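Appendix C reproduces, verbatim, an entry submitted by the partner laboratory led by Prof. M.T., so that reviewers can inspect both the input and the predicted structure.
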Amino acid sequence: MDRSQLIKHLDTLLQSARIRDYCPNGLQVQGAEKVHHIVTGVTANQALIDEAIKRGADTILVHHGYFWKGEDERVIGIKKERLKALLINDINLIAYHLPLDVHPIYGNNIQLADVLGLEVDGPIDESDPSKPGNIGRLPRPMSGKEFRAWIAECLQREPLHIGEDEDRIETIAWCTGGAQGYLQTAVDAGVDAYLTGEINEPAVHLARETGTHFFSAGHHATERYGAKALGEYLAEEFNLNVEFVDIDNPV
């Protein structure tokens, strides 16, 4: 399909124009005009680009692209090497950050809920439905230890758990990626637990002192699923060759 047709469809599907973000969403690097073969992934790192080149892809679709607010604007170092590889090989780079977090079908948060079997009751912050994250319930009541093991089994990554192993957990809020700053929102919502990708030092104390279980399951591990689901949709909708490539990241 035409690149412009693909971008227009994705922009409409993900409603990217309605979401304020820290980076440009949509087409970030222009490559081939015709799109036949897409590689999807979490982050447009050099390893993913190299794999796309190896597989003969003309387009890369990711959650974490380039040109973040506040970053060094110079095209030097790894930025130069990444852009050079994309341009020489005429590969499109398409990235959707917050639009891919909040989408109700293909978004990272709803896809993570599906992987973990979480029941979704609504947005994490009812006063701001555009904020990524959800609130809901576990598949069944579990102890802290049981839920930690369940996360490890589903995501193939052992999470960090702040909380008592034998406490009963029923309700939960979650937001994929680096959303440790939403812990207070979860506390205010009165849930038993909060799940995200990363943790910082203040979050440990907030979790302990409020009795809210905190599960840090990995930024990459919690965000594997949005770009993959979106790519699978494109493959079925437009009969495109789409491959998900998981470049592992322990963070």
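The chain has two domains: 3-100, 103-219. Additional entries are available on request from the coordinating office.
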